[in-house]
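ok so i was messing around last nite and threw this chain in just to see what happens. nothing serious, just curious
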Amino acid sequence: MLLSNQVDGVLLASAHDPNDADWRTRLARLAVPLVLIDRRLAAMTFVGGDDEAIGFEATRHLFEQGYRRIAHIAGPKTISTAVGRLKGYRRALKATGLKAREDYVIESNYHDESGGYDAMRKLLGFSPRPDAVFAASDPNAIGALQAALEAGLRLPQDIGLIGVGNHRYGRYLRVPLSTVDQQRSTIGHSAANLLLSLIEKEQFRPRSILVPPKLVIRDSSNRAELGRSRTPRTAAAQNGKRRMR
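result:
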């Protein structure tokens, strides 16, 4: 439909399986410049989040907060973003010297809270159970949060949790959710500018622009802040006792 309207270029957020050869062939034959966003296909121009960096930074953050048994609720293996985040998770475990356990990786539907809920319940049944979870999306993390609370666990004391996406409602949850912001606005601006530049040129080579992620640390994983916030209250209570004496 777009091509029939004689557009000069296309921005495409594909949800196709990256192994779909027919789809990739059709895209490669387009007569206008094409920029993919969100999900990558090999040898095609792409602008999006650095998914491996997302997985690495989220997992390293949990390590820095003192967690040592870090599990991962992963997205489907057919989705490139999920594959990248899983790779980053495993790279962070290796970099921090933590043991990688395959049973600590549970595949779930990306955009389904119930998938995160079921995955967390399974993880909590392990012995030893994980003391932190990196969920590949905020919906997964929200479902996981509910399962942890129902199990009587305190966040971040008993278990830490971080998601991906920085959904607008994450900070309003019963326990505000730590997350990794993919910098969607930056991705949109970069993709549009790149497409405009490609339209002005008659020839171009495929290229990829990866936008670095940004950690958004909230209560669900912030053990360090919890420790700092306790100190002033304890001091105030002691001062109060002295005044009463």
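not much to say yet. The longest strand covers residues 70-74.
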